[in-house]
Design a protein that fits this description.
Layout: H1 7-13, H2 24-36, E1 40-45, E2 48-53, E3 60-64, H3 70-79, E4 85-91, H4 95-112, E5 115-120, E6 125-130, H5 141-153, H6 171-186, E7 189-190, H7 191-198, H8 203-209, E8 215-219, E9 222-225, H9 227-235, H10 237-249
Parallel strand pairs: 3-4, 4-5
Antiparallel strand pairs: 1-2, 2-3, 5-6, 7-9, 8-9
Helix pairs in contact: 6-7, 6-9, 6-10
Length: 250
């Protein structure tokens, strides 16, 4: 005899499977919040999930989704054609991944002039992380200075746009390669002489920090290549050749 069991029901009862979250679970807590602020609230008006009106003010629209998504932002931006007061709402999650996503999406909402709401489903707690407002970007002079410094120091254009950050040829890596080349050509050398030959003013600090594992101190103030450094000479042969030509032409 065969028994046919609804696995989804059994899993839920056993605590093994979590029932899927539905957008409707967000509605009641958000409605209570808006009604507490004096709004009359109705759902599914035209294409909007939630519409709230108060006196003669502009209506508030809230778009609901079970998670952050591009389509959620598309919908919210479309609603800005109806009112300036548009919010997106998602369930409040747990863990670092959600915290990072929340931070990034809050910044996105501020740039787009959208509001952001999260709802903690276990107790209905509603948190407003951002209100709709015109975005006023703040420039970081420090970050801009670092950007321009890296641009000026980097020799040529050794990377391909869109590459991952790991393994990028930065100005710092190029300085390390200059020191690498000097030690490869001259063997163990005093840091002061490496700085002069490589034209890397902070050669001593760079080799002492040994960020890439290429250098080893053989005695006070004198450095040589480590086994990993010897391998780097082969791995970065083309870049070393380019830097040598640049040094010669300079």
């Amino acid at each position: 005899m065969y028994w046919f069991v609804d696995v989804s029901v059994v899993g839920i009862l056993a605590g093994m499977i979590t029932p899927p979250v539905r957008e409707t679970a967000l509605y009641a807590p958000i409605r209570l919040l808006l009604e507490g602020q004096g709004y009359e609230v109705k759902s599914e008006i035209a294409e909007a999930d939630i519409v709230a009106c108060r006196n003669d003010e502009n209506p508030v629209i809230v778009e609901l989704k079970t998670s952050f998504s591009l389509s959620l932002f598309h919908q919210a931006i479309a609603r800005q054609g109806l009112t300036d007061l548009v919010y997106i709402a998602v369930p409040h999650g747990n863990g670092r991944a959600f915290a990072k996503s929340l931070k990034n999406n809050t910044a996105m909402c501020r740039r787009l002039g959208l509001g952001l709401i999260t709802v903690r489903l276990k107790d209905g707690t509603v948190v407003v992380h951002a209100d709709p407002a015109k975005y006023q970007p703040r420039k970081s002079k420090g970050k801009q200075a670092r950007l321009l410094k890296e641009f000026a120091k980097r020799v040529g254009d050794p990377n391909e746009g869109g590459s991952t950050r790991r393994g990028l040829m930065t100005a710092y890596r190029q300085d390390a390669l200059r020191c690498l080349r000097v030690l490869h050509e001259h063997g163990p050398t005093k840091a002061k002489e490496v700085a002069q030959a490589s034209r890397v003013e902070k050669a001593r600090r760079l080799m002492a920090d040994d960020h890439y594992g290429w250098f080893e101190r053989v005695q006070t103030g004198t450095y040589a290549l480590s086994p990993k450094g010897e391998q780097a000479v082969i791995a970065y042969a083309q870049e070393l050749d380019k830097l040598a030509k640049t040094a010669t032409s300079g």
